[in-house]
Amino acid sequence: MLEKTNRIRAKLSDAGFSATHGFYNNHYVRRGGDFAVEHFPISVLSVDGIGDIGIDIDSVWVEVKITKDRAMAIDYPLLAKTNKIEVYSADDFLSDFYNEYIDPCEVAGKIGSSDESMICVLFYFNAGCNEDELLEVVSGFCGSPVLNSEF
Length: 151
Hints:
It contains five helices and nine strands, in the order H-E-E-E-E-E-E-H-H-E-E-H-E-H. The two termini are 25 Å apart. The chain is α+β, with helices and mostly antiparallel strands. Strand 7 and strand 8 form a beta hairpin. Helix 1 (2-14) packs across helix 5. Helices cover 29% and strands 36% of the residues. The radius of gyration is 15 Å and the shape is globular. The protein has one domain: Bira Bifunctional Protein, Domain 2 (BirA Bifunctional Protein, domain 2, 2-Layer Sandwich). The protein has helices at 2-14, 68-72, 76-82, 107-112, 131-143; strands at residues 19-24, 27-31, 34-38, 42-47, 51-55, 59-67, 84-89, 96-98, 118-126. Mean pLDDT is 86; it is low at 144-151. The strands form two sheets. The chain has a seven-stranded antiparallel β-sheet with strand order 1-4-5-6-9-7-8.
């Protein structure tokens, strides 16, 4: 995990992103339709102004935090068709706007009717993913006001 973390951090640095690293336990994962707490630590890179990249034994994820307005502008049916994602409240991460059990066509309406000001979009990757894939997600949210078919 640490080797993968260091490769990702180097890619981020080369692309001009600043990130800090830590190991965090007591994180939540979805098992079926429910959440479970995992007590062991995982490696996490916090990318300034973007969000977090988590490196676990069997997966890697990128969690970006964006404003409600930016979140409303995303084409979720397209994004969900080409990526494994979840969308949830930045304040109450157990409050889902999208997961595999929710129709992606409902996401914008759910976000629009919420009181949330910040939204998290989580991208899942397999553990062997290429670091460039992760950088593409981070750069896409940083560099463009609206995420669309580029992902």
